[in-house]
């Protein structure tokens, strides 16, 4: 089975953005997924677990956006921070989220065919005898 070997990056641009506006995204890895999942749950003082599934898109954007040249209505650069991500137009956040999901997806059948990586049988655990005196 083939796999991605490194974090991929990609420059994206939506058709409705100004010509100078681009976003650089990266693929997500296991650590990113763990961080996102950990941050969507909380436990209150009564030990009740609450899931905040509405945070998934924002947390994905925060982890997957490397940089951007987005600007506000007065053409001032938007800082890349949580507040700016929260303030993105819904269509923009969906576009960026979908692109991060696509670049993070498992290899397609065609990509697997083109891969030169051969499959391994996993980690071999070898038991060693302990020598006691």
From TrEMBL:
Positions of region (Disordered): 108-133
Output this protein's name. Uncharacterized protein
Q: What is the lineage of its organism?
A: Bacteria, Bacillati, Chloroflexota, Ktedonobacteria, Ktedonobacterales
């Amino acid at each position: 089975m083939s796999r991605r070997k490194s974090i991929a990056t990609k420059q994206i641009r939506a058709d409705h953005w100004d010509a100078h506006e681009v976003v650089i995204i990266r693929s997500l890895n296991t650590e990113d997924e763990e961080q996102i999942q950990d941050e969507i749950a909380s436990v209150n003082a009564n030990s009740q677990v609450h899931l905040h599934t509405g945070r998934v898109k924002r947390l994905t954007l925060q982890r997957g956006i490397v940089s951007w040249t987005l600007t506000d209505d007065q053409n001032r650069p938007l800082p890349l921070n949580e507040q700016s991500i929260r303030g993105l137009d819904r269509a923009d956040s969906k576009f960026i989220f979908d692109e991060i999901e696509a670049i993070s997806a498992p290899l397609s059948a065609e990509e697997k065919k083109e891969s030169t990586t051969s499959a391994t049988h996993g980690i071999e655990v070898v038991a060693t005898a302990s020598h006691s005196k």
